[in-house]
Design the sequence.
């Protein structure tokens, strides 16, 4: 029984660097919102957790074999990002230590987002003030990752941006960080797909799934016919993706997306498994990539 | 939320004769939509995110889950006993 903490990337030498935490989930709530708990099997498997943490870090920084999307490896932010991992198998099996839950109506793992701050506060020696947190689970039945957006602290300052003439801010701080529940055996772009959701915000730009007929968000709009212009982001006009790569928009959909960086592959937030050149080759669309870059840069540069 | 792989969607339709591609589409859409509303500040929706979420949506998700995975779910539950 031991506590294992690793600083995978040190980040900027300051008291509040932009921080991504990867935590072995000690306890599963099963099913979600029931209050019933079981030990997460990841607790018996430090090597499996460490392999998952290495995968997540590689995926975030473009290090998977053949991976092309590497927004966090941008030289203006890469060295400012702190990445830590935490494995603690000394904890009791109680609801307060459940960071992930098994959804009773799907095979999706769900982050218990409101519990992360208190959980990490148990480790003041590691100074883990997070912007995005992954809870890694070895649930034998629930094998799909999911994420909640960040709840920004809208009382705190940030870096302003505009979206179609409306003013928003990349807030420096959060009330609840972006939270992700992810299976330990995840592969390909799953880690950065979920990061795309988690780094976005309930009040300052939401990055939604593009593989369903989603409601509007930063990266999705609705309407037909699809206009040539998708959006104006901080003075830059971005085109619409008229064809959704080669996937096409189903006839029943109203959604349409922003132009792709690589029009031969689906966007990372779309169904990357459908890429004809391999799922790891997918990249973000233009507005998603610029938003993530700007948001991380703003948070990394906070006073 | 992690998208389904093509073979996973195919397996659903093969294992559940009553399931239709539109059922999978609706199920995936509602599941994805669940995460677009802040559960700790329900009225505080992300800009532009509309309202088809909540208890009615959760009931429909559960109904579709039974339709799409009923037999699989029974197997999982019996194996875990």
Sequence:
């Amino acid at each position: 029984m031991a506590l294992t903490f690793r600083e995978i990337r040190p980040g900027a030498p300051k008291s509040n660097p932009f921080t991504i935490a990867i935590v072995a989930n000690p306890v599963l709530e099963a099913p979600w919102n029931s209050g019933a708990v079981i030990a997460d099997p990841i607790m018996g498997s430090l090597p499996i957790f460490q392999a998952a943490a290495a995968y997540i870090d590689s995926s975030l920084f473009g290090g998977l074999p053949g991976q092309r999307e590497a927004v966090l490896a941008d030289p203006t932010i890469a060295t400012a990002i702190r990445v830590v991992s935490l494995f603690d198998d000394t904890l009791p099996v109680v609801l307060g230590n459940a960071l992930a839950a098994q959804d009773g109506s799907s095979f999706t793992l769900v982050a218990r987002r409101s519990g992360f701050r208190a959980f990490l506060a148990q480790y003041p020696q590691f100074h883990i003030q997070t912007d995005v947190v992954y809870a890694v689970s070895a649930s034998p039945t629930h094998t799909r990752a999911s994420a909640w957006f960040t709840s920004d602290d809208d009382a705190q300052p940030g870096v302003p941006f505009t979206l179609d003439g409306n003013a928003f801010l990349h807030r420096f701080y959060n009330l609840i960080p972006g939270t992700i529940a992810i299976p330990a055996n995840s592969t390909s772009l799953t880690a950065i797909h979920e990061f795309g959701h988690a780094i976005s915000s309930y009040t300052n730009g939401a990055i939604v799934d593009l593989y369903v007929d989603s409601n509007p968000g930063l990266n999705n709009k609705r309407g037909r016919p699809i206009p040539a212009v998708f959006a104006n982001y901080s003075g830059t006009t971005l085109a619409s993706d008229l064809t959704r790569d080669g996937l096409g928009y189903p006839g029943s959909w109203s959604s349409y997306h922003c132009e792709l960086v690589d029009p031969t592959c689906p966007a990372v937030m779309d169904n990357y498994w459908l890429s004809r050149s391999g799922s790891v080759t997918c990249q973000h669309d233009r507005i998603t990539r610029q938003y993530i870059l700007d948001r991380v840069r703003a948070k990394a540069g906070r006073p | 939320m992690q998208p389904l792989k093509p073979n996973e969607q195919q397996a659903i339709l093969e294992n559940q004769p009553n399931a239709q591609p539109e059922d999978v589409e609706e199920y995936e859409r509602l599941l994805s939509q669940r995460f677009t509303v802040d559960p700790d500040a329900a009225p505080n929706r992300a800009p532009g995110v509309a309202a088809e979420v909540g208890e009615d949506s959760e009931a429909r998700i559960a109904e579709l889950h039974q339709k799409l995975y009923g037999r699989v779910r029974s197997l999982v539950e019996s194996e875990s006993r």
